Amino acid sequence: MMKAVVLAAVSVALVLAVGCGRKKGSAARDAAVRALSGGSVEMDSDGEGARIRTPDGTVTVAGPRGGKLPPGFPANVPQYPGSSVVHSVVAEDAMGVTLQSPDSLQAITDYYKREMKANGWKEEGAIAMGESAMLAYSMGGTTVNIVISDTGDARMITLGIAPSGDTTK
């Protein structure tokens, strides 16, 4: 559990650093990552991504990747049609992608409910909370959590994929 918390915290810090345009060699960024994780950071040469290595594992954060999902993204978890990739986070046993779409919260929610079921995923839960929705799915030993948030001009769709620890579903 601590590994997941540390990796998540470091990932958020790194996404903020990457998103704010920090360049390779940022002493403040490197110090923050070391303080949070006890690890080191490597920035991609184009400044669009970073890799953090800690004693608990490696996390890679990338920018839009030219609109592509990260390597190894499950084919049975669809990218919302017409959405653009904002960033992705890939760890050794989990990954997350944030997408952006101009479509309505309801249209996106309906799409994922329909498509995840069509792709064989079992719905574990769905919650609508005003300007956001959360959906949870499982298949085999994998869980997918989908969070859709209304940011005003667009909707952000976060797809989190991780092992569930339960291989019977």
State the name of the first-level CATH class of the largest domain. Alpha Beta
CATH architecture of the largest domain: 2-Layer Sandwich
As a percent range, the share of strand residues is: 35-45%
Radius of gyration (CA) equals: 16 Å
The secondary-structure class comes to alpha+beta
Under CATH, the topology of the largest domain can be stated as TATA-Binding Protein
**Uncertain stretches of 5 or more adjacent residues:** 1-24
**Share of helix among residues?**
25-40%
Can you tell me the number of structural domains? Answer: 2
* Count of DSSP H/I helices: 3
The SSE string, one letter per element, is: HHEEEEEHEEEE
Number of strands: 9
Mean pLDDT: 78
Attribute tags:
9-stranded antiparallel beta sheet; TATA-Binding Protein; 9 strands; 169 residues
Care to describe what's here?
- The protein is an alpha+beta fold and 169 residues long.
- It folds into 2 domains: 1-60, no CATH class; 64-169, 2-Layer Sandwich (TATA-Binding Protein).
- The protein has helices at residues 2-19, 27-37, 105-118, and strands spanning 40-43, 49-54, 57-62, 84-91, 95-101, 122-129, 132-139, 142-150, 155-163.
- Strand 1 and strand 2 form a beta hairpin.
- It is globular and about 45 Å long.
- Mean pLDDT is 78; it is low at 1-24.
Sum this structure up briefly.
The protein is of the alpha+beta class. It has helices spanning 2-19, 27-37, 105-118; strands at residues 40-43, 49-54, 57-62, 84-91, 95-101, 122-129, 132-139, 142-150, 155-163.
